[in-house]
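Before the break, one more example. Copy the sequence into your notebook; we will annotate it together after we see the structure.
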Amino acid sequence: MRPYLVATALLLVALPLQGQSRKRRQDKEKITTEELADYGDANMGDVIRRARPNFYLVTASTNIGFTAPSAMQLDNTIYVYVGTQQEGDTSMLRFHKASEIAEVKYFKPGNAMSPLSAANARVIQLLPKDPLK
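Here is what the structure looks like once it is written out:
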């Protein structure tokens, strides 16, 4: 009878720990509303730099050995979108506060879900909060 009691106690202790590990796991290509709430009125450039520095990383080009640019060459620019409207490069992030943004998404080149029509660039998309809520 005693081993069952010990096993039950261990199970009850482990369940809250399992829930906590899920909460800590972050999506590498998204910053959620809950995470943004921790940053208050900080500008989005600083928030992304701290929360997801991988958004700014540019991997080595895949066209090593080619001397002329090709149509398949990846663009190393990171474009910023607010909703579906392109605003420019990452310097535009400083004009947006974390408290005004509901979610941030990052799209790698070639991602069909990217709001950018030429899908060979990196995109950071800010989804603003609904002003009526």
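The chain is about 25% helix and 20% strand. The longest helix spans residues 2-24. Try to locate both features in your own notes.
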